[in-house]
Each structure stands twice: as C-alpha cells, then as structure tokens.
Amino acid sequence: xxxxxxxxxxxxxxxxxxxxxxxxxxxxxxxxxxxxxxxxxxxxxxxxxxxxxxxxxxxxxxxxxxxxxxxxxxxxxxxxxxxxxxxxxxxxxxxxxxxxxxxxxxxxxxxxxxxxxxxxxxxxxxxxxxxxxxxxxxxxxxxxxxxxxxxxxxxxxxxxxxxxxxxxxxxxxxxxxxxxxxxxxxxxxxxxxxxxxxxxxxxxxxxxxxxxxxxxxxxxxxxxxxxxxxxxxxxxxxxxxxxxxxxxxxxxxxxxxxxxxxxxxxxxxxxxxxxxxxxxxxxxxxxxxxxxxxxxxxxxxxxxxxxxxxxxxxxxxxxxxxxxxxxxxxxxxxxxxxxxxxxxxxxxxxxxxxxxxxxxxxxxxxxxxxxxxxxxxxxxxxxxxxxxxxxxxxxxxxxxxxxxxxxxxxxxxxxxxxxxxxxxxxxxxxxxxxxxxxxxxxxxxxxxxxxxxxxxxxxxxxxxxxxxxxxxxxxxxxxxxxxxxxxxxxxxxxxxxxxxxxxxxxxxxxxxxxx
Length: 515
Fold this sequence. Notes:
Blueprint: E1 2-6, E2 18-25, E3 52-57, E4 73-78, E5 83-86, E6 100-107, E7 112-118, E8 124-130, E9 141-149, E10 162-165, E11 178-184, E12 189-199, E13 216-217, H1 220-226, E14 235-239, E15 242-247, E16 257-262, H2 268-281, E17 292-296, E18 303-307, H3 314-319, H4 327-346, E19 352-353, E20 362-364, E21 370-372, E22 379-380, E23 387-388, E24 409-410, H5 411-427, H6 444-454, H7 472-485, H8 496-504
Parallel strand pairs: 13-17
Antiparallel strand pairs: 1-6, 1-10, 2-3, 2-9, 3-4, 4-5, 6-7, 7-8, 9-12, 11-12, 14-15, 15-16, 16-18, 17-18, 19-22, 20-21, 23-24
Helix pairs in contact: 4-5, 4-8, 5-7
C-alpha cells in the first residue's frame, strides 16, 4: 500500500500548474522541455522516460488537459502528460482551498491503481485505472516522489506536509534519500519538491496492495436475508432482465444496496463468463456510473449488487409518479449520461459497450445527478475490433439501433440509444418503436421530432409540462444532437466526445441534419 498526504499553500497554488506524485527511473532527472504544466516529468517525444504519475492539476492547458475537466482535476498519467483517467467533478480552486490529502493504492492481482482525494471541505473524489506496472518498462531500481512545475509566478511554492510509503512485501529492501533540488528548463522552471528513492529487488506486483476488495462475491443466503427472502415489499422494480430488490446487509459498514436477480437460461459457460466480466466491471469508477458492488453466482439465478441510488430512475420522473424534473435538471441529466458514456467508450483500457441505455437504467441521486447503471449488459471491445458481431440482440427495442438487428453492436449503437434518451428528456414523451426487426424498429418519437426539425419548429417539441420554462437554445441543441445520434447511417452519428461538446458549448457548431 502507498499512502501520502500533501498540503498545499492556498495563496500560491492557483498561480502554478500543479503537483504530481510519480514513480520513475532511478536516479531521477528532468526530461528536456518538461517545464510548466508538464510538471517536470514529461518532455518531448525524443526524451521518453517511463513514468507513472498521479497529478493534482490546478491550471488547465488546452494542449493536453481533458476538455471536460476545465476546473482543477486529479489524473492518472502513464508515460504521457495525457491522463488515462481523471476526475470531472472538481471546480476551479478546489485543490487550493486548504490542506488536501490523497491516498494512492495499487492492487497487483487486479492491476487496479486507485486514487482517493479528500479536499479541505471534507468532500472526496476518487479515480482509478487498470494498469499493469510490470508492462510499463519501469526498472527494478526506481524513484518515487513529488514534482511540480512553475508557472509565470516564480514565487510559487507548494508545501508538502507529510508523506508515507509502504510495501506489502516485507522482504523488499528499501532505502530512502530525501532530496530537494531546483532546476530550470528553457521556457519555464520545474521544482522537484521531494524525491524519495528506493530500490525494489522484487517484482512490482508486490509493491502496493489495496486496502479493501474491489468487488465482493456475495452468497445466495446473504442476499436472500438482506432482501427478506426477495419479498414483494422489498421490490424496487422489474424489467426484461430481472427483478430488483432493496437489500440491507448485516455488515454495518455496508450501505443499503440494490440486488438484481437475473432471469433466463444460464449454462455453465455463461456463468463463468459472467463472473469474469463482473470482476472487471466492478473496477470501473466514475461519478456518473452506478457502482457495481459485487455479484452472486452460487445460487440458481445470477445476481448483481449495485449501490442503492435514492431517487429512483429517470423513467419514473419522466413517465411515472416521480417529481417533474425542471429543465435545468434535465439538461444536467443529458450531460451526466454523456460523461458516463464517454468514460465507457474512451476512459477505460478497452472501449466498453453498454447496449441498453434507456431512462429505466438512469438513476438519480439525492441531488438529482444522473448515474448510468445496469452493467450486466456491457461488453468490452478489443482495440481495432470496433464492434461486436454475431451476438444475441440485447437491449430494449424502443431504444435499439436498427443496425443491431443483425447482431452487430458498436459504440455507434450506444450513441443511437443516447440520442433516443435525449429526445425523451427534452420532450417528456416515451419512445415507441414498432416490434418489427425487418423494418428496423421504426420509432414514432424520432420520426415526429425529425419532422418538426425539418419544418423549423423543433423547439415546439419541448415537454408541455415545462410551461415554456427552459432555455430555448439548450432545448434546440438537445433535440438536434438527439436527432444526429439516431441517424440510420452509423457513419453520420457523432462520437460521444463530439456530442458532449455540442451539448455543453453554446459556441460549438452543430451540423445541419440531412433530409
């Protein structure tokens, strides 16, 4: 396990680019052209140095920082200034509002690097990345420490209050040298605040250990007891893939959970694949994803265990007995689900397809922020494969890409479902598709909105229950982006990053929809 505590000077940090905890070659040296926002760690391509870093970034740079993290952010960087995983929920100044503490853990068994940051106000944010340290070309003799880049303010000086490091292998010989040094680059200066060098003769796999399990396998009896033997008064809902129950576990440290009992034939190979897949999915971490806590495979039905999200599903608030959502809340839901899909498609080691994006699978928390759930349906796509072929159609046909009738799913099919969801969020009308695979599930909602768009009256499709209380420009964008996503030609649909840019940026151009 590796733990560190970082205190930062609140009056000077906003003027600097940030600080990073790193693991790199020993002895450590500054790569050429690595000043400023490159944090003294990553230079030009000609000076590649294998380095794994956790950055605490306080100065957004359009050259490499994520487009949807324009405030402060925490990132996991592997051999590049571009973050493999990063936080999206921090505002500008959050990392400079007092003492910030961070815990970095690595589990060699699951190859999961996890970072949890506690801000001065007591709130926390977490990120994680799948990372095999043995494959990152890190040497056995390695350096760990902290590095920071100077901005225009030469008086910038972060303060490291304390740090700690430990390894789970007691036989690993370690020695520690603490060194402060100041070096300059051509255009900007970088300060190596503290370097803690150690020699590791054992494998990197034994370096760190996560404190709590990433996923938990529950017994059937445990989940049965938590749901009062799956009683009707504990049932939260039901769908084509199974019933969902509230579960109160005996462990007082565990919050209430949602237990999904899957239906359908489950042979031995399906059960084996299920456990492998769920183990991977439990490692995903994003604020707009419902956390998959664990699973059960020792009973006849397979079961998934999720965090319990209190305000139920988006479907209930759009079409059921839930509170009518304001336009501001709906617009945020659209962005939240976009960020969740972006993480699945681009933020994981391999793209992940959800294949059943719909209001029933969008949960709302206490603040009515949206979380995308139901991860028993997702699949990973190998790099370069692009799509899954020859698979059984999975998902609700009211939201299904017509191209999926041949069993081919891709990120573009997720975009189709996202487009239908956007149209529902804006209009308040339920998607209705004809149950006719040969005709490609013709959808009355998409057809109606498309017709209104071509007549120049797309905003008139807004949910009448809003009584006109909405931003017309935002409404037009949500409806238009929805239509772009549901185009029959997959090649014409935007990718999720482009869709988010069109939704969130009023100055970003939105293409005209073809006839």
